[in-house]
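Model it.
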Amino acid sequence: MLDEPDSGVDVENLEIVGKAINKLIKGKSGLLITHLGYILRYVRADRAHVMIEGRMACFGNPMEILDNILKSGYKGCERCQMLEREPNVH
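Modeled.
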């Protein structure tokens, strides 16, 4: 479990941190917690989850979610279609 490994890391070094995480978790499972999400450009993640006010608001492809948040903010996560398809996730 990595809690905000990108905290305090400048943009130029996010790739270095991402590569180190990929090497660390190769062949294993891991949990990465981030508030900004930019590190997702460098970490090979299978799935992303967005929590808002203590509940899962959205989940899916990490890059699609990041792109959506950068474009529309977290409001798009609140309207996530994925949760409507899987009602037992709440």
